[in-house]
Amino acid sequence: MTSRSVAPGSLSLSLGRLRHVRERSVVAMMSSLRSKGQLSPLVAARHGDELVLVDGFSRQAAALRLGWKSVLVEEVELSPTQMKAQLYVRNRDRGTELVEECRLVHELTETDGLSQVQIGDLLDRHKSWVCRRLLLHRSVSPSLMEDTELGLLSPGVLRRLAQLRPRNQEEVVAVARREGLSPRETSDLIDLWQRARDPEVRRYLTDHPREALLRVGRGRNEDGDARALLAAVRDNGAGNRVRRPLASTTSTPKGNTARPGSRDTSSTPRTSTAPRRSTT
């Protein structure tokens, strides 16, 4: 492990594909470098003829903009796989973005050929943590991953979108943006979309999302949500065409085993057909 001065433009940024450097971070680092100088060295590792930057992407970008001729770099010995792991390990306490974690886990799986258990050991995370991020990366469309990285979608909404098919993900997001829905409202809309599988009901959700959310409201149970949505669809002209599909999302009271179309007499008092005795 050695430290030396290196021209910031000479460092390889090949691992930058796994890091998202926000503009505000670079601007803040420029201010810090002007007033305080470089407080800690960048971290890089040798790979062939290149010195690959592992930690300090914001500082490197800030130094370039400021026109610095050199920055202090700590050179460490790491394998290509260990370099990728250090992207996460060295920034874990400062916080890493969900999309960054998903891309890193995917790369370690597909490119480096590691198992989920091996990745968990390398990143000091449980296998379930690795599994969730790998599944998220495989389930969400690349364009929505980029939108989340740019701050156009919240991580919470991204997780909910993963429960839908890719083509439905894009459709729901388009509706949410058109209507200016908040992250909470978008999550509620995704929840309704999952329950209402009939095309007529989903068409109502895309045409009148705010009305659907208002009708259903929050804090109700699943049975109440389905009935409120059914009433809203009926009021908008879909009528009986969606009544049967929606009925599957409502719960049937226990003990009611009557066949469809039959008369439920469980709570109807019986009337005696025996002739009355004359009192005269």
Characterize the structure shown.
- This protein has 280 residues and is an alpha+beta fold.
- It has helices at residues 23-36, 57-66, 80-89, 98-110, 116-123, 127-139, 142-149, 155-161, 166-179, 183-195, 199-207, 209-216, 222-235, 243-247, and strands at 2-6, 42-47, 50-55, 71-76.
- Strands 1-4-2-3 form a four-stranded mixed sheet, with helices on both faces.
E-strand count = 4
Alpha-beta classification: alpha+beta
The percent of residues in helical segments reads 40-55%
Question: Numbering strands along the chain, what is their spatial order in the largest sheet?
Answer: 1-4-2-3
Globular, elongated, flat, extended or rod-shaped: what is the shape? elongated
Mean pLDDT: 82
Features:
alpha+beta, 8% strand, disordered C terminus
Topology (SSEs and partners):
Layout: E1 2-6, H1 23-36, E2 42-47, E3 50-55, H2 57-66, E4 71-76, H3 80-89, H4 98-110, H5 116-123, H6 127-139, H7 142-149, H8 155-161, H9 166-179, H10 183-195, H11 199-207, H12 209-216, H13 222-235, H14 243-247
Parallel strand pairs: 2-4
Antiparallel strand pairs: 1-4, 2-3
Helix pairs in contact: 1-2, 4-6, 5-6, 8-10, 11-12, 12-13
